[in-house]
Specification:
The protein is α/β, with parallel strands linked by helices. It is built from seven helices and twelve strands. 38% of the residues are buried.
Length: 239
C-alpha cells in the first residue's frame, strides 16, 4: 500500500493509535507487520502508539537476576514476565506509559542503527521539553534521563533490515513496580515520569500529539493516520 502523499517532498508513514493492548498481542502484531514489510505486502513504514497493562519484559541482555522480588511475589501480583528479542535488559510497562513501536525499513529510510536510536531519544527529549522538563542522553546507557533518573527507555530489534520494538516514555506511569527490579539491569539509578517531575498528571492525548509531531520533525516524514481495522485489512492484502 502506498498512501496518498499530502506533501510530495516528504515520505509518508502510517500511524496507528491503538487502545490499551496486552504485551503479547502487541508483539504478535509487530511480528506480522515486520513480515508484511519485508515481503512488501505493506510498502509503507508504520508507527504504533499504545499503552500496555502491567508487564515486565526482559530484553536480550536481560536476566531474572535483576528481579528483586521473589517468583511467589510476582505470581501473587499476577504481573507477567516476558522475554523478548529487543535490546536492553529488564523494564516495566504499564498504564500511563506511552509505548511507540516503529516498524521501519532502516535501509529504505536511510538511517544507521545508531542514528535511528539517537532519533528516538530526540523525540522523547523534545516531548519532555514541551512541558519544561530538561532531559538528556547518557552515552553509556541509552534512553533519556533527568539527572540520575530515567524518563524514557529505548530497545529495538532488527530482522532483515526492518526495525521493530522502540521506546517507552513515562508520562503518568506508577513507578512503584520499578522498585521490584534493577531497571535496565542498572543498580543505584532511579526512574521518573513527567507526572513526578511536574507534580501533576498530563493528558495522555496531548503527549500522543506531541510525540507524533516530533516523529515528523525528527525523521522528516508525514504521518498518515490509520485505525486498527484498516491495519488488519492491510495484513490480509495479497502480496
Amino acid at each position: 500500500m502506498k498512501p496518498e502523499t499530502q506533501n510530495p517532498q516528504l515520505k509518508t508513514w502510517l500511524c496507528a493509535e491503538l487502545p490499551a493492548i496486552q504485551y503479547r498481542d502487541a508483539l504478535d502484531l509487530q511480528h506480522r507487520l515486520v513480515a508484511a514489510r519485508k515481503e512488501r505486502v505493506i510498502d509503507s513504514d508504520i508507527i504504533l502508539l499504545l499503552e500496555h497493562p502491567p508487564v515486565f519484559t526482559l530484553g536480550r541482555r536481560g536476566g531474572e537476576k535483576n528481579l528483586i522480588v521473589s517468583g511467589a511475589f510476582l505470581e501473587e501480583s499476577k504481573i507477567p514476565v516476558i522475554r523478548v528479542e529487543r535490546g536492553g535488559d529488564i523494564t516495566f510497562h504499564g498504564p500511563g506509559q506511552l509505548v511507540v513501536y516503529p516498524i521501519l525499513d532502516l535501509k529504505e529510510v536511510g538511517l544507521s542503527v545508531v542514528d535511528y536510536v539517537t532519533g528516538l531519544e530526540e523525540i522523547m527529549i523534545r516531548t519532555a521539553g514541551d512541558w519544561g522538563i530538561t532531559a538528556e542522553r547518557n552515552p553509556i546507557n541509552r534512553g533519556i534521563w533527568v539527572g540520575n533518573n530515567k524518563l524514557g527507555s529505548v530497545g529495538i530489534a532488527i530482522r532483515r533490515g526492518v526495525s521493530f520494538h522502540g521506546f517507552a516514555f513515562n508520562v503518568n506511569l506508577s513507578l512503584k513496580h520499578f522498585k521490584w527490579i534493577n531497571p535496565c539491569g542498572l543498580q543505584r539509578v532511579g526512574v521518573t515520569s513527567m507526572e513526578r517531575e511536574l507534580s501533576h498528571s498530563i493528558p495522555m492525548n496531548q503527549v500522543y500529539k506531541a510525540v507524533k509531531n516530533h516523529i515528523e520533525a525528527v525523521f522528516r516524514v508525514e504521518l498518515v493516520n490509520i485505525n486498527l481495522s484498516e491495519l488488519q485489512n492491510l495484513l490480509k492484502s495479497p502480496a
